[in-house]
Amino acid sequence: MRKRNFYVNGNESLKLLSIIFIIFLCSCTSQPNYNGGNMDQAVKDFDELDNGASIWNEAVDYYHNKNYSAALEKVNKYLEIKNCNKEQAYLMRGQIDHEIGNYTDCISDMSEVITLNSSKSTAFVLRGNSYHSLGNLTAACEDWQRATDLGSEAAKNNMNSFCK
Question: Which of 8, 69, 72, 79 is most buried, with most CB under 10 Å away?
């Protein structure tokens, strides 16, 4: 069973209660004062405190339910968090881009993943798949070869099927 965040799937009142609690704590310390009604800043600060876990969990749920536009929105919001896992976020955003046919955006996101982690075979496979979808077989085969070298069976199958 997958562990879930406590305020995902409609329990927004618990999230709001957490935000109110943080506002209360901040009013008792030298932290920023939210009494002026800056709820947007309070929400942003809360997201920073949990490193965007609530946003990430929502993105994952939307993705698994094939609600790609909502998932994309959440991943983009997650990427705004200072200490987010950028490799993970770019990988998911690239997967979403590929699913909805935004192959150029997928290539860009997979290039970001590869910059962050050059041994991530999944990024080479997905970027290769996007190159293939755009008709660039040379670039696709190069990425699939790199992923094959990193141990990817999917890339090896693609190489055998398309790169003769």
Answer: 72
* Residue 35 exposed, middle or buried by CB count within 10 Å (0-12, 13-18, 19+): exposed
Quickly tell me which residue has 């339910």 as its tokens.
Answer: 65
pLDDT digits (tens, 9 = 90+) for 91-138: 999 999 999 999 999 999 999 999 999 999 999 999 999 999 999 999
The residue with tokens 């770019």 is 90
Supply the pTM of this predicted model: 0.72
How far out from the chain centre does Cα 53 lie? Answer: 11
Longest CA span, the chain: 68
* Rounded CA separation 126/120 (Å): 10
